[in-house]
Amino acid sequence: MVLLEWRRTLVESIWEPQDNSYIDILENALIPSVDLHSLHSGWTFQQDNAPCHRSKGTKQWFGEQKIEVMNWPAQSPDLNPIENLWDHISLRIQEKSPSNHSELWNAILSTWDSIDINRLHTLIESCRKDVKP
């Protein structure tokens, strides 16, 4: 697997899971990214089964946008390499001890920018071991 241009822009967002903030994030971050990278067909969106991801409104939004969403088994964070990456990012951010919102956001961005592609390959390979054909 080749991961070209894997590092996408992070979007800062403060949201409450019970409102339409997740759809707002998708509209303000996902759609512009799809447009920027000309991903208008032949791709599938991956997300876990968080309540805001599987809400009726979110499912309807994906249908209206004609975005294919990967079916995801419940309680399976071990199948998603991003979960282990978030753990790594969290540890690096804790080491920086941000004391306010601005420092936290800067720590997130610098940590994200420092991720080595070899770490991603390792995480993906570790997930493949858990999946049996």
Gyration radius from CA atoms, angstroms: 16 Å
* Strand residues, percent: under 5%
Mean pLDDT rating: 80
What is the total tally of β strands? 0
Order of helices and strands: HHHHH
Largest sheet: none
First-residue to last-residue Cα separation? 17 Å
Regions with little confidence, pLDDT below 50 for 5+ residues: 1-6
Instruction: Write down the overall geometry.
Output: globular
> What structural category do the secondary elements indicate?
mainly alpha
The share of residues in helices is 40-55%
Number of helices: 5
Please give a quick description of this structure:
With 133 residues, the protein is an all-alpha fold.
Commentary on this structure:
The chain is globular, with a radius of gyration of 16 Å. It contains five helices and no strands. It is mainly alpha-helical. The chain has helices at residues 21-36, 56-65, 81-96, 101-113, 117-130. The model is unreliable at 1-6 (pLDDT under 50). 52% of the residues lie in helices and 0% in strands. GO terms for molecular function: nucleic acid binding. Pfam families: DDE_3. Residues 42-103 form the Tc1-like transposase DDE domain. This is Transposable element Tcb1 transposase isoform X2.
